[in-house]
Structure formats: structure tokens, C-alpha cells
Amino acid sequence: MNTTFKVKEQYKTLDDLEKYLGSKSKYECKKMFNSWRDISITKEYCVLVKKSALYGIKVNFVDDNHVMLEPVVPGVYLRSFVTGRGFIPPIVRALLAKGQRQLFNEVSKYFAEIYN
Predict the structure, then answer these.
(1) Distance of CA 110 to the CA centre of its chain
(2) DSSP string of 25-50?
(3) d(C-alpha 112, C-alpha 93), whole Å
(4) What angle do CA 19, 23, 25 make, to 5 degrees?
(5) pLDDT in tens, 8-49
(6) In the chain, fewer beta carbons within 10 Å around the N or the C end?
(7) Which helix (DSSP H) or strand (DSSP E) does residue 82 occupy?
(8) CA angle at residue 74 from 102 to 71, to 5 degrees?
């Protein structure tokens, strides 16, 4: 469900994207460490659009002009149920899929407005 968008010149930083998404979305938008990757290796930041502890969209730059939207589980405790091993993570991912897709579609619409 990941999607890449080419953004306009005035949205070249995460700070600009954070302001834009904060003005468009009714959900919490904040710039933070990309904790879905090993931050000891990459000191990478992202913008998180957080609907709840279960539903969020991570926005980060893949190069100078393109951002990638990726659905994530913002809650640190809940994240272990999605990324762990065994039969429970696929069940949890299936239960979260519909809400993640709805939030993803909503945030994608915001990027359609600043698509280059």
C-alpha cells in the first residue's frame, strides 16, 4: 500500500510537509524520528499523521522530490503485535487493514493537491 508522490518545489522539507498536513488533516501531524527503522544506524526523520495508536501514515523523503506514504502502527506496544513472529501478527494486520486503508486514502488525497 506504499505510494510515492513527486511534490512541488515549496514542499521540499519535512517541516513544510508537517505544516501542510497539519493544516489539512484533523489528525495529529508531527515530525519525529523514523522509529520504524533502526535509528541507531539512520538518524532519519519522518512526518507521522496519527489517527490513533492503531492507525498512522508515515511520510518520508525517498529523494529530493519524492515522498513515500506508508501505513504504520504508531503505538510502540501495539507495534510488537504487528511485527512479531507466529500466527498473531497476520491476524492483527488483517484486522487493521481496513482502517489503515481508509486513512491512507485520506492522506493520499492531500498529496494530490501538492503533486508536481
Answers:
(1) 13
(2) -SSEEEEEE-TTS-TTT---EEEEEE
(3) 27
(4) 110
(5) 888 889 999 999 999 999 999 999 988 876 655 557 899 999
(6) C
(7) helix 76-83
(8) 40
